[in-house]
Write a structure and sequence with these properties.
By secondary structure, the chain is of the alpha+beta class. It folds into two domains: 5-73 and 224-329, FAD/NAD(P)-binding domain (3-Layer(bba) Sandwich), CATH 3.50.50; 110-215, Guanine Nucleotide Dissociation Inhibitor, domain 1, CATH 1.10.405. It has helices at 13-24, 62-71, 105-115, 120-142, 149-152, 155-164, 170-177, 181-188, 208-214, 226-237, 294-314, 321-330, and strands at residues 5-9, 28-32, 44-47, 50-53, 59-60, 82-84, 89-92, 98-101, 217-220, 241-243, 248-254, 257-263, 269-275, 281-287. Bound molecules: flavin-adenine dinucleotide (FAD).
């Protein structure tokens, strides 16, 4: 059994998945996450009883998660409640036309036939080209790290890379296939998968539609944030230590080897809110990200805290924010 220590920076889906695989392989893994919560881009905000995803909102490429859970000798279904979506998405246009996209090609073709019958055949060809691009990409850059450039540049892969690389933009590619501006627009939206513009991103991105139309999409019951929660749970089952509110400032390198990390001095934030007799709402924020010494920082925060408590007891109406600014500078 290996027992080396590993530190992973970031508890996004990438960090958590790596942590699970490494811990399952016998490493002693710690994940350091600067945010309060795990999940990285896959997160949510809550307002008025509603929950909004900040990142992805539907799950594609389920097989990638299956592989991870199988590696961990667990069942994905025991951790996540996934429902296959049909339709996957409903597209609306201002003239009242809608299109329900389905993994069932026949159903999608029927939807297209309603407003662009001339493009039904084109859709079939487009999807076939997308599948072909996906198959090539899967064995080259999806399966291997792009950092492994020497490997990817071997003649065997170079041919594949050239086959999916395109000098054409995604928009030009879609215009070549579809006559309907609505369908050109619909398939342009796949550039947004990584926040790109279809007018600038290469037609390589035409592989993405196959991910939805060909491989399908799932709804995660409870919202997409259930995914990082499930991964964190699985990681902890393998004794991974996940430290949130823990930003890494520097990776320490010795003899060209990473030997440790330097954590950023703790961000001390004291927020108090109370009302004076004049109903003056005061919020004092004491925020010193540059404080090096934790003990000093904590002492300063404690002093500020007790001053605020003291002031509250006296119910002084002369308390002002600038007073607290001066106070926090002095302590
Ligand atoms: C709107 C939107 C929609 C998306 N839709 C999809 C989709 O449908 N399908 C799909 O597959 N993908 C989608 N994505 C992309 C997907 O969410 C990301 O690719 C994925 O979550 C990235 O995971 P990651 O772990 O690589 O990075 P991140 O999620 O960015 O995680 C990195 C983590 O590292 C932490 N970190 C960074 N620096 C430090 C530091 N110095 N110290 C400590 N911690 C640090 C960050 O706080 C963060 O938690 C979408 C993204 C967005 C924004």
């Amino acid at each position: 059994m290996v027992c080396e220590k590993i530190i992973i920076i970031g508890a996004g889906l990438g960090g958590l998945s790596a942590a699970i695989r490494l811990a399952k392989s016998g490493f002693d893994v710690t994940v350091l996450e600067k945010n309060e919560t795990v999940g990285g881009k896959v997160n949510f905000v809550e307002a008025d009883g509603y929950k909004f995803d900040t990142g992805a909102s539907l799950l594609t490429m389920r097989h990638v998660f299956e592989e991870l859970f199988t590696f961990a000798e667990k069942r994905l279904d025991d951790y996540l409640d996934l429902t296959a979506l049909d339709p996957i998405c409903r597209y609306f246009w201002t003239d009242g036309i809608t299109l329900d996209a389905s993994q069932d090609v026949q159903k999608t073709e029927n939807e297209i036939r309603k407003f662009a019958p001339q493009d039904v055949e084109n859709f079939r060809n487009y999807l076939s080209d997308s599948e072909n691009k996906y198959a090539i990409a899967e064995k080259t850059f999806l399966a291997r790290s792009l950092n492994d450039l020497p490997h990817l540049l071997r003649p065997k892969y170079l041919k594949d890379l050239l086959a999916i690389s395109s000098l054409k933009t995604l928009d030009a590619h879609n215009k070549n296939y579809f006559q309907s501006p609505k369908l050109q627009q619909l398939f342009n939206r796949f550039a947004t998968y990584n926040g790109s513009s279809p007018y600038q991103t290469p037609a390589t991105f035409a592989l993405v539609p196959f991910v939805e139309f060909g491989l399908g999409a799932w709804y995660v019951r409870g919202g997409i944030y259930e995914i990082p929660k499930a991964l964190a749970k699985l990681a902890r089952e393998f004794d991974v230590k996940i430290r949130t509110n823990c930003a890494v400032e520097k990776i320490i390198i010795e003899n060209k080897k990473a030997v440790g990390v330097k954590r950023t001095a703790r961000f001390i934030k004291v927020i108090l809110s109370f009302q004076t007799p004049m109903r003056l709402k005061l919020t004092a924020i004491f925020c010193r990200p540059k404080i090096k010494n934790f003990k000093t920082a904590n002492r300063r925060a404690a002093v500020l805290f007790s001053c605020l408590e003291h002031a509250r007891n006296f119910r002084s109406s002369r308390i002002t924010t600038s007073f607290f600014r001066r106070l926090s500078r002095r302590i």
